[in-house]
Amino acid sequence: MKNKTVFVCQECGYVSQKWFGKCPSCGAWNSMVEERERINLKHTNYVESCKPLPLWDTEEGERLFTGFSQLNRALGGGIVKGQVVLIAGEPGIGKSTLLLQLAERYSRNYGKVLYVSGEESGSQIATRAKRLNLTGDGLYVLAETNLENILEALDYVKPSLLIVDSIQTIYSTELESAPGSVSQVRECAYKLTQVCKKKDIPIFIVGQITKEGAIAGPKVLEHLVDTVLYFEGERFSFYRVLKVIKNRFGASGEVAVFKMTDKGLEEVPEPSALFLQERTGSPGSVVFPHAEGSRPVLLEVQALTIDAIYTTPQRRSQGFDLNRLALILAVLEKEAKIFTRDKDVFVNVVGGMQIVEPAGDLAVALAVCSSIKGKSLGDVMVFGELGLGGEVRAVHFPELRLQEGKRFGFRKVVLPKSCVFEADGMEIYGVSHIREAIDLLL
Hints:
21 strands, about 450 residues
């Protein structure tokens, strides 16, 4: 083993032999920190491990239930042995509460669970468990930040599940850098992953996030794990959305919705009903079937337009990309003669959800038009991508979106003409241009 000094960017993990004021990779200023890098000079020959693809065992193994049915569904039916799950979210959003409830329920079915906390003491966790009415007979709590001690406890307890809260607080004595640095996060996550996969122990790792909303630490952390979960929602709202960003054992884009109560987090079995329960159908309101995963969720997209007070009109968006909104407003002005240059435009996705798929373009455009004209669109479901020429382009999963809308009583649907197909009991209108959609509904 040989050591050498390198400079590591604390934002992206870029490694350099010399110091830079600005990281050449991500452009962050004053992020290069001097660290000692260990180089393993030992070489091992693994040629004998190479086998043709048909000789590898393709059995995935049984699914292990987390204790939350909606979370099981979002993960593809549950977790598997040796699966590494990274869960991230803003402070106070409910990550520790969710994992403490999960650990207690999991221990009832599969035996001992080891909960490693680097941020809270054992008495603090016990106080929260008492508030949540958790017995925790099979739940073992370890307040520790040293990686070597954690691995020793793992051998002693032999749990069926490991939870680490959080990876940024764990450090290894083999490295000289401080806890939370790129080298420490990478090394600790790698060792925990290798040990748990070798012992077939699933592990949940809590990751802190930056002020921009990304997971803190090197990007390799997200590549290292099997599943990445984002816990989203307004801190002062009752509802939380757990979104699957990456999943090697199921589909990504799935969501599980929870409600925060004084007894902890409760599952919401019908997210679509939750997001539409207080909808009034006023001007500027449109229903959009959001389908990043295999199960669509009906969302209410709201738009509000008022006369601008200042010289430069305001553009504000909650849950929808602001740059995408600017493109939609430009298309409306050029192709449909809907002018917003003298109006403030506000767009909101109800429930704290984020729309990142382009299928929401047509819904946002019609919501803006509805607000400007002061006319309600009624009980209509809208989806489609909007091109710069005003054309309405095809999107994925149109059948699933229609099925979800039909299940909740929507009979009128506006969608891209290329996605039109027969559906019993539904009025389907295919449009190829934004002007057709506006003439149809307004």
